[in-house]
Amino acid sequence: MKKPCAAFDVRLAEMRTIAIKTSVTWFLWVNMMFSSFILGRNYFSASQSEVLFHHPAALLETMMVIDLTLSAAVLFIMRMAPLQNAQWLGGLAKWTVIGLSLCWAGCFFVLIVSNDVRIIFPSAALLLFTALISLYFDPKVLLSFILPIWLTILITSLFYRDGLTVMNGLQWIFLAGLIESGRRILNRWFMLALRREQENADLIQQLGLLANHDPLTGIANRRAFEAQMDQAILRHQQDGNSFGLIMLDVDHFKLYNDYYGHQKGDLCLTAIARALESAALTSSGIVGRFGGEEFVVLLPDADANALETAAQNIAAILQAQNIPHAASLVSDRVTVSQGLALWQPGVTARELIAGADKALYQAKQEGRNRYK
């Protein structure tokens, strides 16, 4: 079985918290209906002979009133909470489930002790199945509701009813099997739906990366870089600061590909992308690939001096990498030509790119392996 990833585990915990906050509302209403039925059963009996007196006196009524009050109070709190996605609401729902379970355990204890056993199995079965429907997605929370009720009924029956009969024991075992098998089926569908949702989210994220990143180097592609540059222009138009653009071209890269092969050429482009990222890191720059062997670097809040310093750093990092280029006409290692352009208020993105491209052309015309 494939081990769930960390992202899926986090999503599972989040969805369980959301699910319990959603489903517990219905569960609380069901509990209020059940407790109201237990409270009013004697008062609305068809004849007085059907009325049963419970021992210990008033314990059953107390448990049911607590159940009603707790359910109503939590419903009110969850309805009026200022933040419906608050983490503490999930914790409140879980503790409420435990409190309701203890109330029902007390109720069934009184019914068994008082020999009012006719409604115990159908009432407990309906109550446990409503818990299954509401809480199947979180086994711990479901068990926290079922276990106190289950143990109370079984243990009390052993001590106050001269032991369980074979038929009664089979009934409870059969009910346990139904609840557990139902929980597994429902939980399987819950997990399947969650995995499909996670897979779709991962796919959307991958598509987003492919749409905005160059698949070879992992840096921004032309579309994403131009969007970043448009944002930079809007931002700098507001603050009035300048920013710089460097356009680079790998010197004689076609000769590099012909000499070393395209696989080595891809490795060379990836190494250059890492070098540009390293150079741009100190100035929070953005690196992109415009296509082929052409790269661009955007340097926010850079003046002419900062722009030249960045170009020198790029050349120095590439020199330190010392990538061999035996076919180059300007050096025995990989070098780049760089065109620098400084944005000023009123300059459009297209004009800025054209200025950097013109400077790059001049650098090539003057012998390459330099910046202009």
- The counted number of beta strands is 4
Using only CA atoms, what is the Rg? Answer: 36 Å
How many distinct domains?
A: 2
Net shape: elongated
String of helices and strands: HHHHHHHEHHEEHEH
Sheet/helix structural class: alpha+beta
Cofactor: Mg(2+)
Protein name: diguanylate cyclase
Pfam families: GGDEF, MASE5
Keywords: GTP-binding, Membrane, Nucleotide-binding, Transmembrane, Transmembrane helix
Features:
372 residues; alpha+beta; Alpha-Beta Plaits; 2 domains; 4-stranded antiparallel sheet; 11 helices; 8% strand; elongated
Write up what this structure looks like:
By secondary structure, this protein is an alpha+beta fold. The protein has two domains: 6-206; 222-365, Alpha-Beta Plaits. It is built from eleven helices and four strands. It has helices at 6-40, 59-80, 87-113, 120-135, 139-160, 166-212, 222-239, 253-260, 262-281, 304-321, 349-365; strands spanning 243-250, 286-291, 294-299, 336-343. It has a four-stranded antiparallel beta sheet with strand order 2-3-1-4, with helices on both faces. Strand 2 (286-291) and strand 3 (294-299) form a beta hairpin. Helix 3 packs parallel to helix 5 (139-160) and helix 9 crosses helix 10. The relative contact order is 0.08. Residues 46-51 have low confidence and may be disordered.
